[in-house]
Amino acid sequence: VQFVESGGGLVQPGGSLTLSCSLSGKYFQFFDMGWYRQAPGKEHELVASITSASRITNLNDSVKGRFTISRENAKNTMYLAMTNLKPEDTAVYYCHFHPPSGDPWGQGTQVTVSS
Question: Which of 44, 53, 75, 110 is deepest in the core (most CB within 10 A)?
């Protein structure tokens, strides 16, 4: 199992980014998935999660109204559309199963919100 995240970058407050997550193998469509983030010195934090059937099951209060999680099973890909970004959103963003299994985490993608 290999998680590959992409789409991060440096953006000004109020800006937008869309992250992508791809998963190796042919079983992506069967798994509930989640986006997590880790700020320096902090633990992994769940941002949002989505079932195999695209039902959103969790959305962190701090991102409600700004972030949208979605997935395309045919492409083995999950997305996180982020709008109205704030400096406190700065973190490395990861995708993984929800809840996370013992499989290794990917490299993540850095999101930095700064003027």
Answer: 44
